[in-house]
């Protein structure tokens, strides 16, 4: 039976099985003509047919465990000597659209390894000669920018380190972590010289004002705190947020202390 170029699959001529296997079970599916031209059809070029109906296998069940239900795309003129599985046979057609470039055309210059946990923070020296990294392994590592070699390791935090900042006016580096501690490191002595206490939970971020000796910190207690670096006194406690403060910024061109907070 044929209707507008659509032939019943029952009218497709069957070929004998070379191995003597049983013929495929009858189906009420339709064989749809493929996109080939009429010339190709006259030459016997194979067409793709969409078969929807009972399983083409004479025995067994399909992948879903339900007998007699399958959907497959098979060549309409192919031989029935094989029992096709119920998995779809799909012809991959290349896309006409150009492949998008998800990454910038930069090359990896160097891979620096040494931490035993996730690297949570990084900060560069203003002179661009070294940089520091803070990790979930509770250590701070100082690296040489030119060679990528490890210069030394600082320990003192008892939980993972979330934030680092290097002072532009002093030889100080500041660190903060999940242990609620904010530490000031003297890079000439490589040791902690000050600690700032006040946060009720982990400290996630910190920033230094470039012209004033003020340190800004924010954390899980939803409070941004402003500290005097030298006296270790808390100057302000900016509350009112409903969630974690994960980033703080200051404007370097203003002598006052405007804050930019990014909430999680």
Structural class: mainly beta
Number of helical segments with 4 or more residues: 1
Strands side by side in the biggest sheet: 6-7-8-9
Nearest-angstrom radius of gyration?
Answer: 35 Å
Poorly predicted ranges: 27-32, 40-74, 76-81
Stated plainly, the CATH topology of the largest domain is called: Methylamine Dehydrogenase, Chain H
Helix content: under 10%
Strand content: 35-45%
Largest sheet entry: 4 strands, antiparallel
> What is the H/E order?
EEEHEEEEEEEEEEEEEEEE
The first-level CATH class of the largest domain is given as Mainly Beta
Describe the structure.
It is a single chain. The chain has 264 residues and is mostly beta strands. It has two domains: 2-75, no CATH class; 119-263, YVTN repeat-like/Quinoprotein amine dehydrogenase (Methylamine Dehydrogenase, Chain H, 7 Propeller). It has one helix spanning 38-42; strands at 2-3, 6-8, 30-31, 48-53, 70-75, 119-124, 130-135, 139-144, 150-155, 161-166, 172-177, 182-186, 191-196, 203-208, 214-219, 224-228, 234-238, 245-250, 259-263. A four-stranded antiparallel β-sheet has the order 6-7-8-9, with no helix packed on it. The longest helix is centred in the first third of the chain and has 5 residues, at 38-42. The chain is globular. The two termini are 65 Å apart. The model is unreliable at 27-32, 40-74 and 76-81 (pLDDT under 50).
